[in-house]
Amino acid sequence: MLDFRIARIVGRVSLFSGILLYLHTAWRFSSEGERTPSPSDEPDELVTGGIYAHIRNPMYVGVLLILGGQAVRYKSLHVLWWTVVCWLGFHRRIVQYEEPHLLEKHNETYAEYCERVPRWLPRLHSPSIATIKEREY
To answer: Based on CB atoms within 10 Å of each CB, which residue in 28, 94, 96, 103 is the most buried?
Structure first.
């Protein structure tokens, strides 16, 4: 069982990391995309800078870190289950709506971005130069 003090620390780190990540993504949308994260005010250009160069859905990851942090901090199985349900809902929305929509809107640019950048977790290593050159040809 996780010690109460450790759970509080891990929970706080996850919670604040999630908040910072979410704020960074919102700032990226407004600075790079010149719009908001709202689907009704989506950017005309694909946002690929900052954390978006490492994962495609950092805003959702930020929310999951916030929820997961609360689950750990308060040792709550209910909040943990809610986090899992949210992730499943986010994943379904991304796969069924957002990705097809972005592919239609940005065509090959988005397809290449999807090949280069993972959906949920960043790669632990950068692609090799040989791999990048293979993609160019």
So the answer is: 28
User: What letter represents residue 12's amino acid?
Assistant: R
The pTM assigned to this predicted structure is 0.84
Structure confidence at residue 2 (pLDDT): 67
- Give yes or no for a contact between 62 and 22, defined as CB atoms under 8 angstroms apart: yes
Give the distance from CA 119 to its chain's centroid. 7
Please give the share of the chain, as a percent, with pLDDT higher than 70. 87
**Which has the closest alpha carbon to 62: 17, 119, 122, 32?**
17
The residue behind tokens 């800078």 is 49
User: Residue 28 belongs to what H/E stretch?
Assistant: helix 4-31
Do residues 69 and 7 lie in contact, with contact meaning Cβ atoms separated by under 8 Å?
no
Torsional class of 34: left (φ above 0), alpha (ψ -120 to 50), beta (otherwise) = left
Task: Tell me the per-residue pLDDT of 95-118, one tens digit each, with 9 for 90 and over.
Answer: 999 999 999 999 999 999 999 999
